[in-house]
Amino acid sequence: MAEVSGPSSGPPLRTTFKQVSSFEPLYTGGAATAVSSDGKFLFAPVNDAVHVTSVQSGKTVARIPNDLEDITCLTLTPDQSTLIVASRSLALRIFSLKFSVDENEEQDLKWSLQRSIPKTHDAPVVVMKVDPTSTLVSTGSSDTCAKVWDIRGGYCTHVFRGHGGIVSSLQWNMPPSSTQKINGSSSMRQIELLTASIDGRVRIWDLRAASGSAGGSKDKGATAAKPVATLESHFSVVRGIAVTRDGKRIVTVGRDRMVTLWELQSKGSSKKDKNANPSWQSVEVITAGESLESAGFLDDEDTFWTAGAEGEIRFWSFSRRGVIRQQPGGRFASGTVQKRAAVTSNEDDEEEESDENETRAITEVHYLPSSDMIVSVHADQDVVFRSASTLQGVRQLAGFNDQIIDASLLSPINGKSDTHLAVATNSTYIRVYRLGAQEHTVDVLPADSGSEEGHTGLILCLDKTSDGKLLASGGKDRTVRIWAWVPQTVSANVLNVGDEDEEMGEVVRPGEVNGNNAAGNEEYGWSCVAIAQGHTESVGAIAFAKRPAANGQIPFIVSASQDRTAKVWDLSTLQRYIDQHFTSKSTTRTPLKLSSLTTQKIHEKDINALDVSPNNALLLSGSQDKTAKVFTIQYQAPSKSNHHTATASLKLVKTCSGHKRGVWSVAFSPSDAVFATGSSDRSMKLWSINDGFTCVKNYVGHTNSVLRVRFLPNSNGLQLLSCASDGLVKVWNVRTEECLDTLDGHEERVWGLDCTQSGEQIISGGADGMIRFWQDWTQQEQSEALEKRQEDVEREQEFGNLLQARDYTNAVALALAMQQPRRLFELFKSVDQQRSHGDDGTNATASMLSDAIQSRTKSTNGVSSLRDPALAEVLARAGVLPSAPVPTSKQAQPANASPASITGLEAVDQVIAKLSLWQLATLLTFVRDWNTSVRTSNIAQTTLHAILRFHSADTIIKAFEEQASGAAQEGALPASKNAYNNRKKAPADLGNVIDALLPYTRRHYDRAQRILTESAMLEYTLANMDAVLGVDEDDKEQNGLMNGNGDVDMQSVVSSSDEEEESDED
């Protein structure tokens, strides 16, 4: 390897990166969600707004803002026309929705706020349900009250009290009118609301019976209304209620792990029985084996689903009283739940299992009959779309990534192009994004919830092989797992119960395990192919060997743990094992148990990072003990000489001390004999291997702990990447220690950092859950800068030509289009200096205040006191000049001067009068900046005077409104739009402009008033001196000349001047 100080060769440095895309939160949890009936849009709360996400692309197509409080619940009407949102402000906001197709044949959504109902309850709304007609919405609150609202009118129609606690679930029972007539009921449609609460009871309310008493005061309605039936079966919170369309069957599920089936009892034949209220009878109580959160019937009115703490959906038959379909590869199908229930016997195990359930539990289920899909929403904010016929996963969206601990790009298909992104997200699962796919989906490792391949503790670190085909993960479960892209066998595991003409199967009773898996279609996916067990503490760092062996296989992997030891694991037989046991025809897919070749204690504190040199000869480690250590790796592949058993050993070469705090990251240069370290002391260091492991460079720039260090690929080791707890990613020049670019896209610390193999794209992931993609923009920026310089030169030349030709009309328009306030100021200044207010021009502020000065100055004997030359000179030096006399035909005028003009030229006045809205807002922004300085305030006040003279207040308001919307940029030249957009980083609205203009304008006016007062005192003093001393003859003669009286002896003046010149020569 060459030294870093050697001659430069290779590609040019990448100096600019631009964010091109990102994976942002789609759903932050905590409230209900909604899915459009066609399954194309997901409505989910993200903090205090509702984000509408395209399920296919994964992009946010609309953001519907609510009030400033967090959203507690939302729902979508069945006709897809209205979205109803409740928040902690106790308000209910109703939005109208309109779905359309844009010009690109993609579905678009437009929304508008229709109504806001304040304080709907005394406590936040936790559940909502819209009736099948999209007319009424029921709300359940923490105030133990349920209400019914008219959606169109926005008023409350019914109030139901009497619950034993928080209302936990709602459901409507509104059988179609035709069904009721067949059943012999009255012609009036049955309208019932079922409510459940934490007391375990389900209450049935008849809205027709309560309508008469609840129409006026809600208190009276609440007192009079009583449930027509109360269903008591559960001893814990009821979270799901399912009712068939004909209203004859009810299923209730709760956190007591019970499923209760209810049937409506037929009325008797007597008149008394016919008038009696219908009665509901519990026909079966089934143990579900998990805490349940949701239930609902399918269209056949016999099959219903349940979902809960295990994170799986199961289908049950009401008539058969048992499970008929389970998720393929799930915990129930594999028997994991049943086995765990038999093994778990102590409280500690139960608490650990409860923590795992919290992350994988299903909180809500949506059934989409039109698309035959069933959607599950999980506690970890994942949204999974499944086929309702097979329960196979179709698509998965990651609503929120929580804290991203590590990220790694993968190339499983050809090893050259990065097609997948693996992310560790503070959980026991690895999320794998498919990059570049038209349809957005996220894979979760392991794919099957019932699989034992995954980690049982939080994942702390990731690493990949040099070709990106293998992925390694280490976690708190003290294991290292290796994942590979291998053929998958889709397990059918679908049990059906039906008539003879349907596919038959046995009913799976709770507690039974079905191990028959029918082979499905073959597809590729990620599977755990090897497991390394042996550490006694959490595994915090792993590193693959960089150079493949002669057969193309990766020889070993190194892991380090909080137990202060490092282990070398043999991978020489891994590929052969994969080829034999992970094919589409394999009956067993058990991961390979790796063997440890050596174990050595290498640090005194936790080990944070590992890296292997490009030639597999050295191992580099970083620890909380503030040191980085270099070890030699002696690895021998299996051969005859070592009895076909691989061996390895580690030997310490050097301990590198220099950091003041723990070392978080280490990295070898891919081409030079150097390595980099990043530390909590906010610095990075570059160490030379050939110079005795001395520190040769120090990089300082981050304001917090440096968490990751990477050499930029395809840069010959000349560029370095770093990310830190300050939320920044930095690009460095290795030789000059210069920071070339800073990428600011995260609000929290950045843990994950990786690059594509070409080095053209950087991926960063932070504790804020954001994943940012940064594209190399160096060439584009250089091209844009070159084009801009050429255009600026051309425009400067054009601008100079216009000034030379005194074509001020076009010059003003060009200066505005070029977004150059200084050029425009100089233009206005040159125009203003052509006024006929004096031989040397005049001050614009003085000319504007001239009338006020003249009116404040008293004349004596019809002669203005400002005609005193001494006073005029004093005022001129102070910046205030008297108004010029009206010019006569004998007075010479400057070329093209327009004394009656506001700016100095009528042509310029006309330009200001005819400004477009965008130009008007831009010019007012320039005036605001000019007005902040005394040196430029005169031109600012003159221009402001012209603007207010020619444009009304409504026009100015409209100009800033269009500028804020970005619709008024048509007047800008193409190259100047970048400058315009840069100025919009701090958008200037009319209020800000006025707030900035008023204090400075008042200051300028006070200054003029002060000068005027001082000039009056001077005049007063001179007048008193004349009164005391008398008027000199010379003063009389001078006053006469000033007043136009008397003659001047020119010969005497000439003689006097000659005498003075001779005296000066002597």
UniProtKB/TrEMBL annotation:
Q: Where are the WD repeats?
A: 118-159, 193-208, 231-272, 452-483, 532-579, 600-641, 656-692, 699-742, 743-775
User: Where do the U3 small nucleolar RNA-associated protein 13 C-terminal domain residues begin and end?
Assistant: 796-851, 898-1025
**MF-aspect GO terms:** U3 snoRNA binding
Reading the lineage from the top rank, the first entry is Eukaryota
What CDD domains has UniProt attached to this entry? Answer: WD40
Classification via InterPro entries: Utp13_C, WD40/YVTN_repeat-like_dom_sf, WD40_PAC1, WD40_repeat_CS, WD40_repeat_dom_sf, WD40_rpt
| Any GO BP annotation | endonucleolytic cleavage to generate mature 5'-end of SSU-rRNA from (SSU-rRNA, 5.8S rRNA, LSU-rRNA)
Please give the residue ranges the record annotates as the region Disordered: 334-359, 1034-1066
* UniProt keyword terms in alphabetical order: Nucleus, Repeat, WD repeat
Give the record's GO CC terms. 90S preribosome; small-subunit processome
Stretches with biased composition (Acidic residues): 346-356, 1057-1066
Q: Where in the cell is it found?
A: Nucleus, Nucleolus
Ranges of biased composition (kind: Low complexity): 1047-1056
Q: Which Pfam families does the UniProt record give?
A: Utp13, WD40
> In its keyword annotation, does this UniProt entry include Repeat?
yes
Among PANTHER family, the record links this protein to: TRANSDUCIN BETA-LIKE 3, TRANSDUCIN BETA-LIKE PROTEIN 3
Name of this chain's protein: WD40 repeat-like protein
